[in-house]
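During the reporting period the student researcher (J.K.) took over the structure-prediction task from the postdoctoral fellow and processed the backlog of single-chain submissions. One of the processed entries is reproduced below for the supervisory committee.
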Amino acid sequence: MVYKSITMNNQQSLGEPLPNTKHAVSVSLPTWADVIGYEEGNPRVINAMKTGYPRFVYNEITKKLFKEAEKKFAEADEFCLVFPSERVAKLCVKFCHKQQPETHNQLSINKFSDGIWAVTFHNSLQKLAKSFWQHAGFIVSSRQAEAVLEHQKTNNGAAEKQNIQEHLSTLTGEKAENIYLYPSGMAAIFSAFEINSTGPTIQLGFPYVDTLKIQEKFGHETIFISDVANLAELEKTIKAKKISAVFTEFPTNPLLTAVDLEKLSTICRANKIALVIDDTLSTWANVDLTPFADIIVSSLTKFFSGIGDVLAGSLILNSKSPLFAELKTKLDAQYEDLLFGPDAIVLEKNSRDFATRIAKVNENAENLYDWLKAQNSKLKAQIYYTKGNPVYEKYKRNGYGGIISLVLPTPEQAQKFFDALDVKKGPSLGTNYTLACPYTMLAHYTEREFASKANVPFHLIRISVGLEDIEELKTKFEKAFGGI
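J.K. obtained the following structure tokens:
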């Protein structure tokens, strides 16, 4: 089997796009010191970065579009962000007003062009505006920014979007009409939150960072239960409060823990509470969530695309859910198709061989995990993976997924191993090439105590296993371990 790929740099340099394209969604942070420098804003690192994950680091093309908007709408002490609809621009303004009520007269909305709306802010609101862009995920992609700047006539991608929906329909068994596409996985999660935000929400299990931030910053009240096995606490909380939704991942990121879906679903349905499950790490190929979830959200950026050159997400409504009619009515009333056509075209092409790729990823990851376990008498590491987890095994239908998390005995050993490991290193996951990152450092650098309380080690290294020759990959790991 020959898999599609994009040419990668022969040497992994700080700040280079991963993959080597202007639309890359990851960036090379090849050393432990580089990750720290990125988090602390060290000019050595920041100035070297040509790109980054698009919700966290504005793509250079998108920044050019911001500048064009500023020429039209901003004063000397103002800046602009652009969004793919008027509704999203209004959501941004509403968010800023909620977070800082004194900003009421410091923001304005203007139409920039078809499909692009600019929000103008006072310069003092840079951090606040960026947080909306990051959390909500309704961003203008680099391809969309490029099309606007160059006045391109673009294909709306309608046929490709339909193909993607039909592909997901085949994988999940849900009708294409109940599958909604988004400009990012986080935008899909935001929409799931929007239609279930009438009261407090529960986050079950240590989540991907922005899933919790959405609930905390946009909602009424958020109850965080870190232990997915603690369903007694969840049930107690539900009885004490009028909960509107429960959010969880299967498995969780980055510890790969698994909640008992049947028990959780029974509790939620008995109390008429929506259960939203993010299956980005397991994918539909490996786990069938439809008997349990009311809503399934996924980042299509990851395994579904594989290449790492397009951002997208999906939200699937479970037509067998007792809440389906209510959720469908709410979602259809607010949904906008904001996945840019050329992005959909790239995603559809990338995803055609998803089934064969995920099978190879499963095989490689399981092989690497078995090898790591065999080495562990010397390494004495904590190795997190779904294999051997009886709860995950209960719901598995194919493989164990492509994510392995590794915690070496000391931070010093973790740093030496990471620096010596000869694979691509940067944020994101699900790429056709193995990608490693010190996950907790990247996601929770200023929240160490929060991560520690949830038993997520600060020096954890997350490995997203790719399609490489597995024996060559194991040799790279062996050499890296040799240095510690």
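The committee noted the following: The longest helix spans residues 354-379.
J.K. will present the remaining backlog at the next meeting.
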